[in-house]
Amino acid sequence: MRKIVLLLVLLTTSFVLAQAEQQIQDEIDNTLWKPFKFAFESLDADKLNALYADQVVRVTPNGIDTENRFKDGNRKRFMENKSAKTTIELDFWFDSRHTNAHTSYEVGFYRMRLIGTEDTNTIYGQFHILLRKVDAEWKITQDWDTATINGSGITAADFDKKRPIQFD
């Protein structure tokens, strides 16, 4: 009988913790990821940059940025896209998410379509993002992405393994 009670307590605790984690991830989706996608697709660098913390570690194949130079890069790239009449469609999904009340580590895949007046360029990649709650708001504090895994380029087949996240 004690084993059954213990098992029920463990199952109930696991369920409650999973529900709490899902509620936090829903909050993150609505307050960070939905605005992130909107900022990218509307080419609004200021809104995008506001989703990052004041101190960010940004890692790309080009190196490590601890001086927030990527924020100026966002502004420049979006201005160039607007000038060239290029629009962006950004889709992504999560492969894993580990979340508690103040920190979330999120890994996923993205597809970015750059739609120009004459052609479309599609870029695929994987991201690893560390989020922290800063002054009651979720902010990106570490951002790492790559276009390869184990030396192989990420392709549509990799991205198509799951459906992209949809926002209301």
Q: What does this 3D model show about the protein?
A:
It is a single chain. This protein is α+β, with helices and mostly antiparallel strands and 168 residues long. Helix content is 39%, strand content 40%. It has 4 helices and 8 strands; from the N terminus they run ααββαββββββα. The protein has helices spanning 2-41, 45-50, 69-83, 156-159, and strands spanning 52-60, 63-65, 87-99, 103-115, 120-134, 137-146, 148-149, 152-153. The strands form 2 sheets. A 6-stranded mixed β-sheet has the order 2-1-6-5-4-3. Strands 7-8 form a two-stranded antiparallel sheet.
Main traits of this protein?
168 residues; alpha+beta; Nuclear Transport Factor 2, Chain: A; six-stranded mixed β-sheet; two-stranded antiparallel ribbon; 4 helices; 8 strands; 39% helix; globular
